[in-house]
């Protein structure tokens, strides 16, 4: 039987998964319900674009769904889980919030509830996320199949332990922001050289995309770096500045800070 899904929350990541289900997973699912008390206009928009069923009261549809996706910030989980607790029977409850692993969900739901955790990233919006996922202790094969539906419609995925996801959140989830910061600096410097912003953004964007494609050839980053770097040349001079500025250490500290904050 094809599962029905309830999304609690209708933000960017929820819409990315809904869009993926609409475009790639329609034959694998039944109905999609979405509840988002703070923004009824957003529910109307999703209804028009993807044919979802808007929900005002979560308890009105919980018994009709097989999967519940918690798509709200971590700070809202406790209240929402408390509200839906009385209505949970055999649904598969999945969170996509940073720091909210299966152990946390199981403590707040009826004993025996099947739970899961997906840590996607912003590229889910274009179907190119690398999503980490894991399960709680009461998982059955049907839940694994349902998880595959959710992660496959937004890109690639990797099964991990809960602890691994806590450690890798900064790498796969937050690091795109580090990359965008890097790109923004290069765009700004390109403008300083007299290039209009539209062209500057195109140049930097295509450089980043092309570099990423080179990584997909399977060559190690250091090999690719060395291909670009002539000893004593211009690129080497730039890399030396990064080295003297502790670029490597700054990135490591950014990862540590991100994971520390995500875990609470």
UniProtKB/TrEMBL annotation:
InterPro entries: 6-PGluconate_DH-like_C_sf (IPR008927), NAD(P)-bd_dom_sf (IPR036291), P5C_Rdtase_cat_N (IPR028939), P5CR-like_CS (IPR053790), P5CR_dimer (IPR029036), Pyrroline-COOH_reductase (IPR000304)
Alphabetical UniProt keywords: Amino-acid biosynthesis, Cytoplasm, NADP, Oxidoreductase, Proline biosynthesis
Organism (species): Metabacillus litoralis
Location in the cell: Cytoplasm
Record bears the keyword Amino-acid biosynthesis: yes
Gene: proC
Residues binding NADP(+), per UniProt: 8-13, 71-74
A GO biological-process term: L-proline biosynthetic process
Name of the protein this chain belongs to: Pyrroline-5-carboxylate reductase
Main localization, broad class: cytoplasm
Organism domain of life: Bacteria
Free-text function comment from the UniProt entry: Catalyzes the reduction of 1-pyrroline-5-carboxylate (PCA) to L-proline.
């Amino acid at each position: 039987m094809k599962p029905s899904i309830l999304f609690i929350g209708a933000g960017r990541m929820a819409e990315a998964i809904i869009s993926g289900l609409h475009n790639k997973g329609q034959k694998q699912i039944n109905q999609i319900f979405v509840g988002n008390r703070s923004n009824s206009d957003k529910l109307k928009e999703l209804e028009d674009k993807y044919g979802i069923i808007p929900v005002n009261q979560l308890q009105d549809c919980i018994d009709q769904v097989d999967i519940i996706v918690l798509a709200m910030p971590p700070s809202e989980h406790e209240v929402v889980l408390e509200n839906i607790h009385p209505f949970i029977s055999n649904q598969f409850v999945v969170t996509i919030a940073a720091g909210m692993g299966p152990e946390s969900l199981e403590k707040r739901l009826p004993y025996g509830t099947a739970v899961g955790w997906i840590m996607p990233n912003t590229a889910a919006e274009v179907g190119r996320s690398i999503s980490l996922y894991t399960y709680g202790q009461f998982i059955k094969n049907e839940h694994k199949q349902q998880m595959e539906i959710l992660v496959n419609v937004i890109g690639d995925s990797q099964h991990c332990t809960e602890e691994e996801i806590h450690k890798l959140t900064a790498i796969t989830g937050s690091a795109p922001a580090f990359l965008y910061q890097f790109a923004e600096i290069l765009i700004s410097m390109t403008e300083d050289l007299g290039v209009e912003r539209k062209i500057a953004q195109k140049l930097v964007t295509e450089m980043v995309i092309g570099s990423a494609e080179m990584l997909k050839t399977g060559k190690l980053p250091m090999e690719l770096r060395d291909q670009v770097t002539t000893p004593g040349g211009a690129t080497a001079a730039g890399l030396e500045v990064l080295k003297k500025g502790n670029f490597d250490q700054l990135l490591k500290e950014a990862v540590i800070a991100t994971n520390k904050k995500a875990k609470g």
